[in-house]
Design goal:
Structural class of chain A: mainly alpha
Oligomer: heterodimer
Low-confidence stretches of chain B: none
Shape of chain B: globular
Number of helices of chain A: 6
Largest interface: A-B, 66 and 61 residues
Helix content of chain A: over 70%
Distance between the termini of chain A: 54 Å
Number of domains of chain B: 1
Mean pLDDT of chain A: 88
Number of strands of chain B: 2
Amino acid sequence: MLNDLIASIILFIGAFYLYFFRLDKIQIMSEGSNSLLLPKIILILMMGFSIILAAKSIIKSVKADKKTEKKDNQRLILTVLLAIVYLYGITIFGFYILTPIFIFLLSLILEYKNYKVSIIFSVTLTLIVYGLFTKLLYIPLPLGIGIFKNINEILIF
Amino acid sequence: MFQGLWAGFTLLSEPIYLFVLIAGSVIGIVFGAIPGLGPVIAASLLVPFTYTMDPAAGILLVAGVYVAATFGGSQTAILFNIPGAPENTCTTIDGFPLTKQGKAAKALGIAIIASAIGGIFSSIILVIGSTQLIKISYLFGSVEYFALSLLGIAIITGLSDNYLKALISAAVGVLLSIVGMSSIDGTMRFTFGTDFLLNGFDFIPIMIGAYAVGEVFIQVHKKEMLKPSSEKFNMSLPNWKEIKSVRGTIARSSLLGLIVGALPGAGAVLANYLGYSMEESIYKNTDKPLGKGSLNGVAAPEAANNSAAVATFIPLLALGIPGGAVTAILLGVFEVHGLQPGPTLFITSETMVYTLFAGIFIINLLLLISGFLEIRVITKLLKVPKGILYPAIFIFATLGAYSVNNSMFDVVVMLLFGLIGFYMKENGYSVAILVLGMVLGPIMENNLLRALIKYKSPINFLNKPLGGVLLGISIIFLLWPVINKIIRTVRGNKI
């Protein structure tokens, strides 16, 4: 129920900020326009819903019957961090250098122990992506910057 | 109509279209069968591949995957008590007990037959219904389109398990759709001075993030994620007598699925539940009661969900209103190819529409063949280690988001909504409603503003009979949980 309370606070602050601090800064392009009508309705509704959600979560927390499901927070955090580093890193190191490394590291986080298969899979998947996206669909994937760009270009000749 | 259909079937005899249909059917069944993936993720990951295809092939691929994946999820529901997708939740109730009784292949066989018949039934009605609905669509003005898009959100919200969170999901979805330039008068809303948001959020990266990446995070978060399946199954198929015993169930569930699917916002998940509930109220056989391993308990939800999956194309094609998450993705594919679903599509791209009709019909026939052929393969696929599967999904999700505009901004949006989708799923919010809100938001707003320009006040909307009725129904659905509570309280007080 704590999650609901936090969500309701974030939702309320977000809607409040957009309604009272952003709406008046919007420049209306034509006189008599109703372009702000739906945003106003939705933001008011969101503030209302978040107050009800907060009230409900407080009431429920008193009589909460918490079911405990086993979760692995550490694995989740590592996965999210790796994903952030990977997506940021693509712009520097390029897609073809970083992708096999990312796949291998993620399979390690997911406790896949067959390292040989993991390495073969990470390289094969990158090659499949190269074939499908670069060669077949002509989608230019990020090649990174500086020397990494040169390496990526050599990799995809 | 028949000429158009004939042209559609003729076009489908070309190798490329046949390949697309077979590929769609196989990919759909595989994605549907792997728990946590399902039709929406399959469709969203395939979107970038449709960019370079011709419009009919691209649309057929996504449509085929959707129909096949809606069936595919029944396999894991029956074999492992794990529905591959929410569309197959009720299939577990009788499907898994049948597996425990050593009748897995019988249950799978009935699921294949029920799914195919449900889908074929709806494809026939799709052809007739869409063309008839086109005639009615000329009665639709801005008030009616506004009311219909509101109805789409109202149905799915009003019938949701968690009403308040469904309302919040819908509101956030509509708010996201508002970001960017207003198409009515060019007013910039919530762009925060950045060029990235001038055209608003592209909903495909959001969809891929919320569904595919969010699901990867959910599976990674589970402690018991890494256990592969090691079960073996009896593979004897259902006999003629058993098939005959479920024909009534298939017929009524297919009809129910058609009605539910044709309503915008309802879709195959609701049809699966309603199909099973209806069978519970009708089924009388005490020798094989429902819930203990009855073939009727498998046939009912499976016929209903596939019938509904096909029926969701009716409002999309005839009115341009997507009925659910996958038809929302399809709307995106149409738009990428410069096509706008709705009455004019039948004039501007008649052959393409009839090719799609013919394709959906053939995909359902293919389900009968590929379904039976794939049973053994699927059981092996379920043993693919998650340490291999999830990195692959993440990479394809990244590429799917990137290739929308060849922009890393979309990839960042995808990751952000992966986290939001994870939070939403873990805490009882509905990603499907958020996506539907985002897709229906612009249709709702544009028509509301046009109607206000024309009729000055919302009260005048009620002067339009069809619009008034649709608005009334929308409000009833939107407030249904509250109305239902009041009715129960009044009844309780009387007792």
